[in-house]
Amino acid sequence: MPRTLGWRPSQLIQIRRPITRPTKSFFSPTSLSPFSLNKTYLTESIRAHQARKMAPQLDSYFQKVDSLSDHFIERLRQAVAIPSISSEAARRPDVVRMGQWLADELTKLGATVELRPLGKQEGTDLDLPPVVLGRYGNDKNKRTILVYGHYDVQPAEKSDGWDTEPFELTVKEDGRMCGRGATDDKGPVLGWLNAIEAHKAAGVDFPVNLLMCFEGMEEYGSDGLEELVMAEGKKYFADADAVCISDNYWLGTERPCLTYGLRGCNYYSVEVSGPAADLHSGVFGGTAQEPMTDLVRILASLVDTDGKIQIKGIAEQVAPVTAEEEGLYDDIAFTMETLHESLGSKTTIFEDKKKTLMARWRFPSLSIHGVEGAFSNPGAKTVIPAKVIGKFSIRSVPDMEIEKTNQCVYDHVNEVFKKLGSKNTMKVYAQHCGKWWKASPNHWNFAAAAKATERVWGMKPDFTREGGSIPITLTFEEATGKNVLLLPMGSSTDGAHSINEKLDKRNYIEGIKLLGAYLHYVAEEPMNA
Ligand SMILES: C[C@H](N)C(=O)N[C@@H](Cc1c[nH]cn1)C(=O)O
Ligand SMILES: [Zn+2]
Ligand SMILES: [Zn+2]
Questions:
Q1: What CA–CA distance (Å, rounded) separates 151 from 130?
Q2: Is any ligand 1 atom within 6 A of the Cβ of residue 498?
């Protein structure tokens, strides 16, 4: 049974409803759409707000962030040095060490911290890394904000093509701070700790109570977390007035954004096996049916060069584009040049901005990630691999359903394999599945973040959706019944999951200011919202 984060088979109907209901809004009784929000309410609200010039204590906080910037970079250096790769069993002790380090840092700052065990990783004897639960402040007269982030990272080896050691934070002269996890998601997680520390050091009252939930398995489908979040929704997280997650990226490099949607991710394996062991291709080539030959044919059948998914029943599930949505994309600060810069090439599928944004935000995509068991080193080994496992994933969008999508994939792969007439054996299964999320930004939580963005960055944020996935987001929304905001720190050129991942010093330091300012503006939003 695949792990299906954000989805329980027995509760499919009740729990898996897409959450697109309008959340309570204090500023307008009429239903402003996410798309009209940017142009109408926010402009007025921010203007009025700027006129009042609130929160003078923010200036002291900002100055303290600047003066502590070297110390905050040092904290990031220590975090990056722990190779907390969740997908590699051998690195599990490092993931656990990272969780412990985070808990210790929080404790030193005065937070109350628990390390919650999550039991065994499904199908293994391996302990899952603990969830770091923390609370800073417990003042009934203040709002409570629940923040989530992850302290695990994607794999990284210098030999993958990194210019520097991936687990040694290297700060370049131009401000790039390179290291695995710098932007995804250690920098943003430490942003919350740094915000606490700078408030303390500046003698500025922390404006809210902060609840924290930091996990160590996000890059591997958030194994075990859904149960904890559901169970704690009305317990540990009961006081939360809203949720904030900093774990995605700006669309470009210059304009900040607030994010109200994520794609889901269904991750699949296709195993093809034949011979009992790897074979000499000179001796057995032409005599044994080769698993790799079957696998490449299966993988090749999934998607075409222009990214069009070839599996029947996927496109049919996608919500149609509405007239209102058509007008949304033009105003977004995104250019094909920015995309080329992030990509490091001009090999884009589409030539225009609107089609590109739609492909990332509101249409599904299928990516082929790799083949386990295949020869992949430099050189020319003449081997016939005995068993190969192809890995691919589908990023899902409204109104796709996890179970229906899985069935379409299984039917397609089985049919293609059958047509090959191979004597090898094949099985296809989902490793983990997480549902897409789309919320309403018409909420004081987003309004506070927009004001904070204007204050720190001097410009209005774009309202964006994200092509990536943060599987637990929907669960937080359901478990707490509160609005969830994604407030990114890093930019489009950060190279999350890629070689030379970086976070710009500017985004880290201003990002720490942004997180703190957001909490101040949250505290000022009308309590009747
Ligand atoms: C957007 C976030 N920082 C992220 O990188 N999420 C991962 C999560 C994941 C891993 N497997 C499935 N989902 C991603 O989008 O790949
Ligand atoms: Zn992340
Ligand atoms: Zn990631």
A1: 11
A2: no
